[in-house]
Specification:
Elements: H1 2-9, H2 24-36, H3 50-55, H4 85-98, H5 102-111, H6 117-120, E1 128-129, E2 135-139, H7 144-149, H8 156-166, E3 175-179, H9 193-210, E4 214-218, H10 220-227, H11 233-236, E5 241-244, E6 250-256, H12 259-264, H13 269-286
Parallel strand pairs: 2-3, 2-4, 4-6
Antiparallel strand pairs: 1-3, 5-6
Helix pairs in contact: 4-9
């Protein structure tokens, strides 16, 4: 039993030690171990030993001293305050509605301070592709590569998406790609319902400005957020549904597996291929 556990956990049970003669190879091994352990983002300039801090004896109680003047508040430029959820959602709706172009919408997102993800992300990941495309693909949120480069779907999942599009004669010059949440959640975690709700008005406005002929929802999160319902992507994929735009126009929407899921579950690629062929047939029928 213990041997099976050790085999399953692999390198997580034997973290690399920090050698005094650190070489490039050993540094790469150490970095790979931390990534496998789930640590792929640094939120401080220096590391902290939280185990040592928790084991340390509590500090002696300080003798009460005369009240001193409160320190000045930190500048909002260095640490912008995040608005309460309800206020942030209202602010997002107002800012999104005021945008008349995609450039104005991007500027509104750059200036928006209502989502806490902005504080931990490297940059805004707005969109990629052709703004006048007839097909718009919407995913969940950026990953590490997207956060570093500033474009959606540029990592391994993005490379697979490019091959999927190429299999039916499409590429990024013929589609428009975005995410419901434009900032990367720390550690690539799933965005919370609150984060998605706050960002949703911007995505709805983005769809309205692009005004695609067809909408493709990549993954269960994007499907449920844009199309409603509680069914998982395994049951909802491959079935044409409708997304109602701001002006009341119904846009045909096709849920599909997210490319990241296909990387983890290669057996599902046959269903993704069936969905791609369905999209291709629909495009050919319309002409």
């Amino acid at each position: 039993m213990l041997g099976g556990v050790r085999s399953f956990l692999g390198p997580l049970m034997n973290p690399p030690r920090a050698p005094t003669d650190l070489t490039a190879r050993r540094a790469a091994e150490a970095l790979r171990w931390w990534i496998e352990a789930g640590v792929d983002i640094a939120l401080d300039d220096t590391p902290h030993d939280r185990f040592a801090e928790s084991a340390a004896p509590p500090p002696p109680k300080a003798v009460a001293a005369p009240a001193a003047a409160a320190p000045p508040a930190r500048s909002s430029a260095s640490a912008p305050a995040v608005a309460p959820p309800d206020e942030a959602a209202r602010s997002a709706t107002e800012a999104a509605r005021a945008a008349r172009t995609l450039d104005e919408l991007r500027a509104a997102l750059d200036a928006f301070q209502g989502c806490s993800l902005k504080a931990t992300a490297t940059r805004l990941v707005f969109a990629d592709g052709a703004p006048d495309a007839r097909i718009m693909l919407v995913g969940e949120a950026p990953g590490a590569d997207e956060d570093r480069i500033g474009r959606p779907f540029v990592g391994r999942a993005g490379q697979l998406l490019d091959r999927m599009l190429g299999s039916i004669g499409l590429d990024r010059t013929k589609v428009y790609i975005a995410n419901v949440v434009p900032w990367r959640p720390p550690g690539n975690r799933t965005p919370t319902l609150q984060e998605t709700t706050i960002c949703l008005p911007f995505m709805m406005r983005q769809i309205a400005l692009v005004n695609p002929r067809w909408l493709v929802c990549l993954g269960g999160s994007a499907t449920q957020t844009l199309l409603g319902g509680k069914e998982g992507i395994t049951r909802s994929r491959g079935v044409w549904r409708e997304y109602v735009n701001e002006d009341g126009r119904a846009i045909p929407a096709l849920p599909m597996f997210h490319p990241a899921y296909l990387l983890r579950t290669p057996g599902a690629k046959r269903w993704a291929w069936a969905d791609l062929r369905k999209l291709r047939r629909t495009i050919e029928e319309v002409g």
